[in-house]
Write a structure and sequence with these properties.
The structure holds two protein chains of two kinds.
Chain A lengths: L23 H10 L2 H11 L5 H24 L7 H4 L19 H8 L2 H19 L3 E2 H15 L3 E6 L13 H9 E4 L3 H12 L4 E8 L7 H13 L9 E6 L15 H5 L6 E4 L3 H13 L4 E6 L7 E2 L13 E4 L3 H5 L3 E6 L2 H15 L3 E6 L2 E3 L3 H11 L2 E8 L4 H12 L9 E5 L8 H7 L3 H12 L4
Chain B lengths: L32 E3 L7 E3 L32 E2 L7 E4 L18 E2 L21 H9 L5 H16 L4 H6 L21 H24 L13 H8 L7 E3 L5 H7 L3 H9 L32 H18 L8 E6 L6 H13 L3 E7 L2 E2 L2 E2 H4 L8 H5 L2 E6 L3 H18 L3 E6 L18 H11 L1 H11 L5 H24 L18 H16 L1 H5 L2
Helix pairs in contact in B: 4-5, 4-6, 4-15, 5-6, 5-12, 7-15, 8-9
The chains are: A alpha/beta, B alpha/beta.
């Protein structure tokens, strides 16, 4: 650590004239006795290396250069309005990540850095997971692990960071990474989300593709400053620095999850407003796999949220080797034409645990004589208004099963946009089933009423179709 | 005479002997002892040939013949609880102030009580202060009642055996009658801090054991135990005043217990019933009690550290303005992992630059979930960071109740006298899994844990001391453990039989005065519940 002693001649900035600090004499002394330029000039004219005239001429030259630069800036045009939008993401929202080329040096670097034993081990591991995927038995956590291994082999500049990484973290997302890629590429982090997200930021700006796994996204609240920094990087550097960082975490609030207030906060709602982030959710192994692959290939900061209570239980098939788009919602269930025609269909938007809740309540809804277009909002930002619109054209009624709070949540943002852009398609106000503005309770008696579930959705659909609002 | 206790274990044996003059009052028979496996916390008597000790009330009157296994024991010069990291031991209680040079090499660990239950023989570092007044007082002390006689005898016996520990024996409040009477121990030792410490540790361990099993049985959703770390909480809490404010991480249930948090209060919170002080909002072990001056546990790791500085700042303001009725400190507890957070850094810097009376108590138990200390820091632990912030620091053996107690007392006095923070690093070992969501054998060897339990367990060490001094008998130990165990079971049963937290409390406490928006939400919720009485009344 180098500690360099110098002196500050002025206030902190022009906004800080320091009148009140009585440093006038001190500053005068400093300018007289601590000026490096003065010292340089005195020293090297005394020893005859330069003459005073030479130094004066140099000063003049420098001043002229600066004046020229200022004039150039003044005379230059202001940037075009469209630049802000262009600088939002390094890769446009509808990028097809399947078309991205892997680096040419991949095989050579892998051969050099991964021993034959390690390679055999990881290939076996990947093969086993792929078998599970084909059989429809792979879990969300394992699907992400599979995607991570495939991408880390495909591109050796991909790294991964997590707390307790070598022990597999909480859901086996980083399983076998340290054993295969080593402790530097697959780093076990000490406790400080701010620090290791910040560290990943540094890597990302210098040619690497870091994956950061937050055990539980609530812990990510600690790294808000760094997450903001990530989102701002591309634009604020004028597009000079990419930020290919992928943050993955298990979060959301499941019914009955019994984790108390501080493990149940909606970080996905908190980060929605940060510019430059692509934010997705995945509640099935298929989506988790496909989105993870795309996010790793994306050159900007991406954040994937998965449902904390479904990481190991949710099993399904995976469309292997396919990257999913990062700006598309998924229509999981279509209302029957009969329901649409009889005005008994509702568009339901949901994500994370809400997806399972909604799927499980479809039968109950149908029994009541209604039906739903169930749309999983895989991309929270950018939002897929096209898919929402397509469905609203049919149903004209919208219900959002939302795992955030009433104030400032995901549902609030969507509701506002739908009202602004698709108002004419609505026959009813947007119904938002979300958490109240109180800390999520732990005791079952209370939690039941706060975290909205399938039962609430059935009621919501009923209310919308029977004009109860 | 010999002081011996043989802690018999399959692979390693720790023997004790200290050589002393033959004539010597305090005595009891030493039974050879076997440290039990980890499901019990207490010691079984093994040697049927030994004579039992007399009851503690009368032992000081008699002289006993002794039978010992005489085996040599040298007070160890280093400890190594985790990872082969060896630290030298010192018997000298010394707070390294910001003005002092830090020790060269590895920072030594302050310890009073060795694993064999004997006070250290500090040949290398005798700390014999001339406590002539105190010593004279002691010699002339005439006990006024059975209890003070008991304590007086204990002191005298220890003095004769360990003259080098004179300052500790005469000075500590552990061997003096307590000014306040404890209500959660039998009447005959309601003023005995030493025995209350012992009993509380047993109660703590039983509570941990039972609630851990309750989680495994699905009766509560989560739990974490402090097994092996009890000396740190009980040792420090007993050295503080009730007006001192405590902030904790999550493994300090001992602090709550010492200050009087009842077994019912513990189980009410874990179960989340209508009597939970936290109103059913937090998952288990998130205890808090304003009445006991302990801030509520919060899940966010490390945030309690700067908050403690704020508390200390308030105390400083109060003392400057004359508002404080009594000088107090704030004490914040955290682990070796939490010491890596950014909050630790800023808190230390603030405390030192603002000069506030806060004690930073780091429980270095060797692990932060799966991260061992060798991956947590490259420095000589946490204590050496004190110097970097211009802060006083001391390193202490966290498995030694006496050392923790004395160090905390000294730190408190220092903090108040100088209006400065103090960093205490207590070296211990996390015998427990991180929590019920962790299987620590996936990243550490079972043998490592068993080894530490056998050799360095704080309760074992204290048991051996008390048995050796005749303060307690084996039968009493089992009896105490049984009583505490059934108290915990009764409390848990009672907690489970109560109704759940009332939903009407949910919107309280979000703001000081409920705003209209919340009132509306509350109204909508209650109406919704009224519409479906069957659905909600089920729970």
């Amino acid at each position: 650590m180098l500690q360099v002693h110098t002196y500050r001649f002025n206030g902190h900035s022009p906004a800080d004239p320091e009148h009140e600090r009585g440093r006038k004499d001190e500053k005068a002394w400093a300018r007289e006795n601590q000026d490096p330029i003065k010292e340089f000039e005195a020293k090297y004219t005394a020893s005859g290396v330069f003459t005073e005239d030479e130094l004066k001429a140099a000063r003049k030259e420098i001043l002229a250069d600066i004046k020229k630069a200022v004039k150039f800036a003044d005379d230059s045009q202001m940037p075009p309005e469209t630049l802000a939008k262009e600088l939002e993401y390094p890769d446009v929202p509808d990028t097809d990540y399947n078309l991205k080329q892997p680096p040419a040096f991949a095989d050579e670097v892998n051969a050099r850095t991964i021993s034959p034993d390690q390679m055999q081990n990881v290939q076996d591991h990947i093969a086993a997971l792929r078998e599970k995927a084909i059989a429809g038995e792979i879990s969300v956590g394992d699907a992400i692990n599979l995607a991570i291994h495939e991408e880390m082999l495909r591109d050796p500049t991909t790294t991964i960071h997590a707390e307790d990484l070598q022990a597999g973290s909480s859901y086996d997302i980083p399983k076998l990474t340290q054993q295969t890629y080593g402790t530097i590429r697959a780093a076990d982090e000490i406790i400080d989300e701010g620090h290791f997200i910040g560290k990943a930021l540094g890597e990302a700006m210098n040619g690497y593709r870091p994956i950061v796994e937050l055990m539980n996204t609530n812990f990510g609240i600690y790294g808000m400053a760094e997450i903001s920094s990530a989102g701002n990087t591309y634009a604020t550097t004028g597009g000079q620095f990419d930020m290919p960082m992928t943050i993955i975490g298990a979060g959301g609030t499941a019914p009955n999850q019994a984790l108390g207030a501080e493990h149940s906060q909606p970080l996905h709602a908190y980060v929605m407003g940060i510019p430059g982030l692509k934010i997705c959710t995945a509640s099935s192994p298929d989506a988790a796999y496909g989105i993870t692959k795309s996010m790793i290939r994306d050159n900007g900061p991406c954040f994937l949220f998965c449902p904390v209570k479904m990481m190991k239980e949710s099993k399904g098939e995976v469309d292997l080797d396919r990257c999913m788009p990062l700006n598309k919602a998924a229509l999981l269930h279509e209302a029957s034409q009969a329901a649409v025609d009889s005005r008994n269909a509702v568009t339901v938007l949901t994500y994370l645990h809400g997806v399972k809740e909604a799927q499980l309540s479809i039968d109950a809804i149908k029994e009541e004589g209604f039906d739903i277009d169930l749309i999983e909002l895989r991309s929270l930002k950018p939002l897929d208004m096209e898919t929402i619109e397509k469905s609203l054209v049919r149903t004209n009624k919208l219900c959002i099963l939302d795992e955030s709070t009433k104030t400032g949540g995901v549902g609030a943002s969507i509701s506002a946009r739908v009202s602004e852009e698709l108002f004419d398609l609505l026959d009813a106000p947007v119904k938002r089933l979300c958490m109240d503005d109180a800390p999520v309770p732990y005791a079952t008696t209370m939690e039941k009423a706060v975290v909205k579930r399938g039962d609430d959705l059935v009621q919501g659909v009923f209310d919308l179709c029977t004009k109860k609002w | 005479m010999f002081c011996s206790s043989m802690i018999r274990a399959p692979k390693s044996l720790i023997y004790a002997k200290s050589s002393l003059p033959i004539s010597y009052f305090v005595s009891r028979f030493m039974t050879s002892l076997v440290v039990c496996n980890r499901t019990d916390g207490f010691i079984h008597k093994n040697n049927t040939n030994s004579r039992s000790s007399r009851h503690l009330a009368s032992f000081y009157n008699e002289e006993y013949e002794e039978e010992y296994n005489t085996i040599d024991y040298e007070s160890s010069s280093t400890i190594s609880y985790v990872d082969g990291v060896e630290m030298p031991i010192t018997s000298k209680l010394r707070i390294t102030t910001p003005r002092d040079d830090i020790p060269t090499g590895v920072w030594p660990v302050f310890r009073i009580l060795d694993e064999n239950g004997c006070l250290r023989t500090n040949r290398d570092e005798p700390d014999i202060r001339t406590f002539s007044e105190l010593a004279a007082q002691e010699a002339s002390h005439v006990p006024t009642d059975k209890h003070s006689a008991w304590l007086s005898n204990l002191r005298r016996g220890l003095l004769e055996r360990h003259p080098e520990q004179q300052s500790f024996i005469l000075d500590t409040d552990l061997f003096q009658p307590s000014p306040i009477g404890y209500t959660d121990v039998p009447a005959e030792y309601s003023r005995n801090t030493l025995l209350r410490c012992h009993r509380t540790i047993i109660r703590l361990r039983e509570m941990d054991d039972i609630l851990l099993n309750a989680q495994r049985q699905g009766r509560i959703s989560f739990y974490l135990t402090c097994r092996g770390e009890e000396a740190m909480t009980i040792g420090s809490a007993s050295a503080l005043e009730s007006s001192d404010v405590l902030l904790t991480q999550y493994r300090e249930q001992g602090l709550f217990m010492w200050r009087g948090f009842t077994l019912e209060q513990f189980t009410n919170q874990c179960v989340g019933n209508d009597l939970d002080l936290g109103r059913g909002r937090q998952m288990p072990i998130h205890y808090g009690s304003r009445a006991l001056n302990i801030h509520t546990v919060s899940s966010t790791l490390g945030t309690q550290i700067p908050q403690a500085v704020g508390v200390a700042y308030k105390m400083k303001l109060d003392s400057l303005s004359g508002k404080a009725k009594q000088a107090s400190v704030s004490v914040v507890y955290f682990g070796d992992g939490a010491a890596s957070t950014g909050d630790f850094h800023s808190a230390c810097n603030f405390a030192a630059t603002l000069k506030v009376p806060v004690i930073f108590f780091c429980r270095n138990n060797g692990y932060a979930i799966s991260t061992p200390i060798r991956e947590q820091y490259a420095s000589d632990g946490i204590v050496c960071r004190g110097k970097g912030y211009g802060m006083a620091a001391i390193r202490v053996d966290g498995n030694d109740l006496f050392a923790v107690h004395e160090a905390t007392k000294a730190a408190r006095a220092y903090a108040l006298k100088n209006m400065e923070p103090v960093l205490i690093e207590a070296i211990s070992y996390r015998q427990a899994h991180h929590s019920t969501s962790d299987d620590s054998f996936s990243y550490r060897e079972k043998e490592e844990v068993e080894d530490v339990q056998r050799k360095y367990d704080p309760l074992t060490r204290l048991n051996v001391f008390l048995l050796d001094r005749g303060c307690i008998e084996d039968e009493e130990l089992s009896a105490i453990t049984k009583v505490e165990r059934s108290s915990v079971l009764a409390a848990l049963k009672k907690a489970e039989s109560r109704p759940g937290t009332k939903l009407e409390t949910m919107f309280k406490d979000v703001f000081h005065e409920m705003p209209q928006s919340l009132k509306n939400q509350e109204k909508a919720l209650l109406e919704h519940m009224k519409t479906y009485p069957d659905y909600y009344s089920k729970i």
